[in-house]
Design a protein that fits this description.
This protein is 39% helix and 17% strand. The chain is an alpha+beta fold. Among the domains are: 95 residues, Up-down Bundle (Acyl-CoA Binding Protein), CATH 1.20.80.10; 92 residues, PH-domain like, CATH 2.30.29.30. A hairpin with a 2-residue loop joins strand 6 and strand 7.
Length: 271
């Protein structure tokens, strides 16, 4: 998840995590130690984000357009464009290699500082750093949230499934946009093979995703686990329990919205 960019943190911390991984794999720094590829230590998208965005072409005048049309007829303009693209791609690859070498050098310097640290200590330090993210322990899924306004496209989000709550993140942001403890979720399931529905109290959230079954199975697993851990209430232990007070919220993460209703992984919702 770190390498795929699912742990939002600073580049400095990502370099430290890479150094701890090297210490865990190879022990102390040595020029003879086998070096994994950078993409096995550091998220590649961070390096790509450093590259300059492609320049947008400015509109040209009619005369220039007629000239290009003439050149295109002879194939010269197409060849010129192909050459420009090849040169641009070569420059970007060169820049990417430079950024990669600089990042690897920084990782190695941090690795040298870990001399004497054993593998268990390196692993513990790695996990301790990752645990600083509030979403640690969640499984993240790339989803597109369907929005209700007409003409508004879906919003790309991370759907985080954790042991205590379901959270929505803007990709790369450490804090969730919203979070729902399981007591607030009344039902979930698939409305079709690529749409997952989550009903939270009086809201219905629709997510477009290719992992509908995986999300439903994981949610069900956490539900069963949470129900097994919940201690019985005093009224449940009594021989003749009194009727529960509707004004008293039940114990748990948050007030229950209603009984869980697990929908089939593939099927349709009924009103």
């Amino acid at each position: 998840m770190v390498l795929r960019g699912y742990v939002p943190t600073s580049e400095e911390t990502l370099q430290t995590l890479a150094a701890l991984r090297l210490q865990s794999l190879n022990s102390d720094f040595s020029t003879h130690a086998p070096f994994p590829r950078l993409e096995e230590l550091f998220p590649p998208h961070v390096l790509h984000a450093r590259l300059p965005p492609p320049r947008r072409r400015t509109p040209t005048k009619c005369r220039g357009a007629r000239l290009r049309a003439g050149l295109l007829a002879g194939g010269l303009w197409g060849q010129a464009l192909a050459k420009q693209r090849a040169e641009r791609d070569q420059r970007l690859r060169g820049r990417l290699r430079e950024e990669g070498a600089s990042t690897m050098a920084a990782i190695v310097e941090k690795w040298k500082l870990l001399q004497g640290m054993g593998r268990p200590e390196a692993m513990a330090a790695y996990v301790a750093l990752v645990r600083e993210w509030p979403g640690f322990g969640s499984t993240l899924f790339d989803v597109d949230l369907r929005t209700s306004p007409v003409g508004t496209g879906p919003q790309r989000l991370w759907l985080g499934i954790g042991a205590k709550a379901v959270s929505l993140y803007k990709p790369g942001e450490p804090e969730p946009l919203d979070s729902f403890c399981y007591g607030r979720i009344s039902s979930f399931g698939a409305s079709d093979s690529s749409t997952f529905r989550l009903s939270v109290e009086d809201r219905d959230l629709l997510f477009e995703t290719s992992q509908v079954d995986e999300i439903a199975q994981l949610l069900n697993t956490y539900l069963v686990s949470a129900a097994a851990r919940r201690p019985p209430q005093p009224q449940e232990l009594a021989t003749s329990p009194p009727a529960p007070d509707p004004t008293t919220p039940p114990q748990g993460l948050c007030p229950m919205a209603g009984p869980w209703q697990l929908r089939p992984p593939v099927g349709s919702f009924h009103s």
